[in-house]
Write a structure and sequence with these properties.
Length: about 425
């Protein structure tokens, strides 16, 4: 049976896109307290079902599919540029296809302005009106207002007209940055992309016995199962190690591991994989905010997902991507060396290589050296870094990773970093190996 929180979320999801939502109205419609309604609306905002805008309120927006996540709604644009909605509030839920900077004559500007786009322009009243008639929303820079007739037209056409105090260049940069961030988010695999859903998940109830475990094990060949209570809330996890030597009528709730480590739908696959390594576990239950079981994720699922992600084309580059692109491997029978050039994007405020870029360089060099001996993924457990000399931008570096000790699960490595034959840095790292 659904909880009050879930009922509110289902109710919000059923509302037409563009509808306004208030805590008081939700509390009245569902017959719940305003506190419960407020918490549910906040989660709906996290799930991108609604958007809250100052001086406008909370509106139902279209939940975007992951493949179109780089598109922004006009409601999100208002938040990005700290804007004020002058008219067309009912169209804030709509998605923009592109943005156009109005820095040309009106006739030329209209050639680039079409339905669904956002025209960024200053205090040019006639341009505002013509853009709305073409089906475009308008973003007025410099904090300027527009004519009352234009505001009425925006309301009539349900196309937002927004004012911001920022200049045109700053606004375009902010929107471009937001789209770029969305591209990066699109590439990051989340648990919701690969998890085994509830309908395909085998689980046990806290009232079951070892007998039910063996029956489920025989039918699924799985070694571990999440354990839930009568409300489907996760209460534990039980594996083959827990039931070895136990009687068939022994209750599961006495044998299971209580308060198991769990993940949510929005947890990244990489984070889940690291957690599995550090904790030495093969199965993670996937739960929602109320602790209700949504599915499971296994170590095998994580490995497959990480291997597939490495084969996908990249669109939005992070600092890690920039560092990886500059790395050049040089292998021979005796040692592995890495050649690297420091670019301006990798420097700190003093013009030297940033700590993050330097750390990424060492980790990548270590991972590459490990692949000579071990297949699969690895994760850094701890590191100690020594900076001998500052490394300026456009400096060429040579990294020499050396394996000191290797076991089935751990590798200890030493690193030396040279610039023009001068030692500029050293490091010690311990890696954990991610095995199937």
């Amino acid at each position: 049976m659904a909880t009050k929180h879930e009922k509110i979320l289902q109710y919000i999801e059923s509302l037409p896109v563009g509808d306004k939502i208030s805590v008081r109205q939700i509390a009245k419609d569902i017959s719940v307290s305003e506190g419960t309604a407020y918490r549910a609306i906040k989660e709906a905002e996290t799930r991108r079902l609604v958007s809250t805008i100052e001086r406008v309120g909370t509106i139902r927006i279209e939940k975007k599919k992951k493949e179109n996540i780089e598109r922004l709604t006009f409601a999100e644009i208002v938040n990005i540029v700290d804007g004020q909605v002058l008219g067309g509030k009912d169209g804030l839920h709509k998605t923009l296809t592109k943005f156009v900077i109005g820095a040309m004559k009106l006739e030329d500007m209209m050639r680039y302005t079409d339905a669904g786009c956002l025209l960024i322009v200053g205090n040019r009243g006639r341009t505002h009106e013509n853009a709305l008639k073409e089906g475009a929303a308008v973003l007025i820079t410099g904090g300027f207002d527009t004519a009352e007739e234009t505001k009425k037209l925006a309301d009539q056409l349900e196309l937002p007209i927004i004012s911001t105090s920022y200049d045109t260049f700053t606004v375009a940069t902010m929107i471009n940055r937001a789209i770029y961030d969305q591209l990066i988010k699109k590439e990051i695999l989340l648990i919701e992309d690969i998890f085994v859903s509830m309908k395909d998940t085998a689980f046990l109830k806290s009232t079951d016995t070892v007998r039910e475990y063996h029956l489920l094990n025989a039918s699924t060949t799985h070694g571990g199962f999440p354990v839930v209570d009568k409300h489907h809330k996760i209460v534990g996890i039980v594996t083959s190690r827990d039931v070895i030597g136990k009687q068939d009528d022994d209750p599961i709730d006495r044998l299971m591991t209580r308060n198991p480590i769990t993940v949510s739908m929005k947890t990244s696959v990489a984070t889940a994989g690291h957690r599995m390594i550090w904790e030495g576990i093969d199965l993670l239950p996937v739960v929602n905010d109320q602790g209700l079981l949504q599915g499971v994720i296994s170590r095998q699922d994580v490995l497959k997902a990480l291997q597939m992600a490495q084969r996908q084309p990249q669109h939005g580059e992070t600092i890690d991507d920039l560092v990886k692109n500059e790395i050049k491997m040089a292998r021979d029978d005796e040692e592995t060396t890495v050649e690297f050039t420091v670019t301006p994007q990798m420097t700190n405020q003093f013009g030297a290589i940033s700590y993050g870029a330097f750390t990424t360089l060492l980790v990548e060099a270590g991972s590459s050296a490990l692949k000579k001996f071990k297949r699969g993924e690895s994760v850094v457990e701890n590191m100690t870094i020594y900076h001998m000399k500052p490394v300026q931008m456009e400096t060429s570096l040579v990294v020499k990773p050396r394996i000191l000790d290797m076991s089935r699960k751990f590798v200890k490595m030493d690193f030396e970093v040279y610039s023009e034959a001068m030692l500029v840095g050293k490091a010690m790292m311990t890696f954990q190996l991610l095995e199937r």
